[in-house]
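Entry type: protein chain
Record version: 2
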Amino acid sequence: MHKNFNIPSIFIFLSILFNSNFAQDKIELFPSNLLVQPFTANTLKPKLGFEFKTNINELSLNVGNSMDILHYKLDENSKLSFGADLFTYTLLRSQDDFHFPVDAIDYLFGFNFAFKKDICENEFGARLRFSHISAHFVDGHYDKNLNEWRDGREPKVYSREFLELIPFFKINDLRIYTGFTYIFHIDPTNIGQDQYQIGFDYFANNLINKSLTPYLAYDFRLINIFGYTGNNSLEAGLKYGFANGRGISFYFRYFSGYNIHGEYFDVKEDFTSFGFNLDL
């Protein structure tokens, strides 16, 4: 991990916070819900489920979660949070006899801070995330019959550490956000270090009933790979459970842009998919 990813300073900050007598009645440890829910169509959000592409023999197995470790109450309508992100994105193919060889896997872990303020039925706030991603080919990418790597793509070093800031504003059931990502260390080094983002998610609460919520979300990310280009992610689905909390979502997604897997970072794709995701 890059030396600028300063984990010890985070724990020093938390130690000071925990040992402040005035703060004890304002801290909630391991709260039951996230202060700021993941941005629905964001390609780098925590997922726990499968996604099946409709126009190619590929599927994703995503395992991971974001968890708030503490909430700190500023006043009656404002809170801060500190949490952790730990998840993987896995690219598989389907074969006969229920075999699913693993082609590539990406690991993400890091810390996040968030702020949220309630104003009547509206909200505004921001989430700041410090994360590390590393990418790897797995044995399913190797063609044993030909004794070579599939498509002539051999494993290469890919990793990045980045800072991501996403402020948002929520009006009733519509949340609008924008974001900026600064990659302060990356391999290979010829990839741009800045990304820009804008999007929304809309959960139609009580349209059907309290437990079943249709939703629509869109995320546009301007990334800097050999010049600026746009990644589009559009998702529509139905969530059973709590719209702003735990539940299970069934969705349909359209994506166009550069592949999210690090070993395929320079490959453009255009696909539709369907899947399900557990929000824990």
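Comment: Helices lie at 7-18.
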